[in-house]
Amino acid sequence: MTHPALERVAQCSRFGSRLLAAQPQLANTVAALLNQPFNRESMQAFLDNPPCANEAALNQRLRQLRQRVWLITTARDLSGSAPLSEVTTAYTNLAEVCINAALDFHYGQLALRHGEPRDAQGNPLHMVVVGMGKLGGGELNVSSDIDLIYLYPEEGNTASDGKLADGEAAIRSLTNHEFFIRLGRKLAAAISENTADGYVFRVDLRLRPWGDSGPFAMGFAMLEDYLVAQGRPWERYAWIKARALTGNRHDELTDIVRPFVFRKYLDFGAFAAIRDLHVQIRREVARREMAHNIKLGPGGIREIEFTAQVFQLIRGGQIPALQQRPTLVVLGELVAHGLMMADAQAELAAAYDFLRRLEH
Q: Beta strands 146-152 and 128-132: pairing type?
């Protein structure tokens, strides 16, 4: 290893030092790639060529990609070549590419045994994986986990179009609900399971309706019923950054979620609920003695995000420009619409950039 940027990675990170020592050939591979960001197209090409023959090969390839993205992005970050936006874009792209690759592979494997999920007209259905939090906002970094919710457009049953070849067993049909639960579990394992090659991202599924006690995957109709009848104020806050990453019929999902999050009239009633939520966060920080935590402590990352999202909840129904996900973009829109002074926005944006860099 002779590239100074990689030498610095080894000096600054125990993980980087162990990775480069265990795979010395990896240093030569990535050294030639350090002059530019690791873009989405390159990630996809790494996963596609050659195609993964089985689940074990897929899991290994996903983790090898994570290692390369980590090395290149960390080296560029430490050398000052990568702004915060490059780091967050790289990790967001990594998550999306890996989710799509794992979902496509396991959908195909399950469909061979059970047929494809179908809508009322017999058309194939696909899972809509919703990224929440920093994944939804396109703001992931090296230490982020990924918050996911699994949805599908319609109830129904699986079916196969093809005729069985001689000796081939008949498929065992499942309900769409059963199929997508199995698919969701396979997806979570492909991304988060710790193997000899590590893991890709930690996966958190607790933001789904009813949390840990709720169904692993649910149809659009069930989600709508839940949000209308039982959706809580903190869930409005969580769904601000929700973004569909896979599947189709996203407009239908948007039509369900938008009225829940962004109210048509000035939503001053949200003040009390948001204030209570903020008090709960502060109490938890104090209980866990995390006052100096750069993410959760007073004046930290969460409070800057909270500031932006309070305006989104209250004014987002009247100002469509506030119905966006990235925190820095929202802060800019607040100035543009006269809801925040420019000097306050500049101070918050600079603090956010600094703290996010410090975080990773």
A: antiparallel
Place of tokens 């979902």: 103
Give the contacts of 245 (CB within 8 A, at least 6 positions apart). Answer: 96, 99, 100, 129, 130, 131, 135
pLDDT profile of the chain (360 residues), mean per 10: 83 91 89 92 95 95 97 93 94 98 97 94 96 95 94 94 53 93 97 95 96 95 96 89 96 96 75 76 75 79 89 90 94 95 95 85
Q: Which residue has the tokens 């197209």?
A: 41
Return the CA Rg of the chain: 22
SS3 245: coil
Which class for 199: exposed (0-12), middle (13-18), buried (19 or more C-beta within 10 A)? Answer: middle
Which two structure tokens, joined as six digits, stand for 214?
A: 């709720």
In this prediction the pTM is: 0.92
Q: Which two tokens stand for residue 183?
A: 């698919």
